[in-house]
Input
Amino acid sequence: MEFDDLTTEWREFAHTVSPFARGVAKAFESCADQLEARLATAYTQDLTATQAASILDKTPGHVRCLIREGKLPNRGRKGAPRFRIGDLEGLGYSAPPTAFDPPEPDSMQIVQSVIDQGDQ
Output
């Protein structure tokens, strides 16, 4: 299951239970919002040439070559290139790197933590 599917599933569940359990629905909506925010951060975080090379299983020199060839946009400056994980798609990598992955969400633990926050 993809994370986007999970947030959609949580929102659909929230809509379904809303007439009967508003607190639960609100908790699921909040969880979906939090997960989406974390995913957005992971996809927009700047990577160095060394990090990008590690993700692609290439050398930093190869990454710099990809910039010169126009295959990889440099979001930094000359001599200090920066990239986003989305820039690496199509270059042999199509998923967020482990180092930037949010932990696998256990939906019940997330919902319980949101409910517990509301009790405070």
About this structure: The helical segments are 3-17, 22-44, 49-56, 60-68, 107-119. Residues 96-100 have pLDDT under 50 and may be disordered. Residues 1-33 form one domain. The longest strand covers residues 46-47.
